[in-house]
Amino acid sequence: MNRKVIFAGLALALGAGYALTAFSQAKPEVLVKQRQAVMTLQGKYIGPLVGMLKGAPYDANVVARNAAYLDALSQMPWDGFVESTKGEKNTRALPVIYSDPGKFKQAQDQLRTAVGSLVAASKAGNEGTVKAAIGDIGKACGNCHDNFREK
Amino acid sequence: MNRKVIFAGLALALGAGYALTAFSQAKPEVLVKQRQAVMTLQGKYIGPLVGMLKGAPYDANVVARNAAYLDALSQMPWDGFVESTKGEKNTRALPVIYSDPGKFKQAQDQLRTAVGSLVAASKAGNEGTVKAAIGDIGKACGNCHDNFREK
Questions:
Q1: Which ipTM value was assigned to this complex?
Q2: Among candidates B15, B48, B72 on the partner chain, residue whose Cβ is nearest the Cβ of A21
Q3: What's the pTM value of the predicted model, to 2 decimals?
Q4: How far is CA A50 from CA A14, A97, A120, in A?
């Protein structure tokens, strides 16, 4: 396959709505879709961990895998929260995100710190510390959703 | 905050549609939403790399970051392709995914191998090898979309 074919295929793969962001800023509706995709996947991987807090069997392999995924995912949404997305309909993101970026950054950092604790705890293999970190992630999710998302 | 409050908050955070998968299999529509979320994010992070192949300035930091994200993301979609999702409307996934799982697995492995090459090349810091790996990822995207997704 030559390069032209690869590029054409990739452009299709990425979908008509996707700007190649090395060239141009993605469209607001794409940014919203991308950051919501991260939230969907954070839900996918925190869900089973919360399950373990609630009595599902503890599985250290699932903890380690999900911790690694959450470490990547929890870095991904933030560059999608830019002022150009303020007028979008399909989002519950509140204007305070843009009027108080310092407070929003603090909420991001709270999640990143909690996920960092989970990664460290999962490597150390201590179930109690893992569970405390899962609780801290829950608090970080709740804090951000309480303050920066429409009810 | 006590545990009960954390759990209630998280359940809300995860959304009404999210089963806690440690307890029960996620609903088909949730599985479709989750795997599509991965595709959205793979697009977000491969886009700028393809841009570099097409002439955007080469940025080794972006390459390293996106390679790490793609390494996580490219492991995430596959457990969402389960037979219970065959009847879902909002997906272009073809039935061959379920009738020829070996061929589908091969396509997954092609992507994983290409992403592995990108991660290795980005660590070695060789621009030529990085660009070859980006091309291979493009081929893997195209191969899977050509064979397993409705046009």
A1: 0.88
A2: B48
A3: 0.88
A4: 33, 27, 18
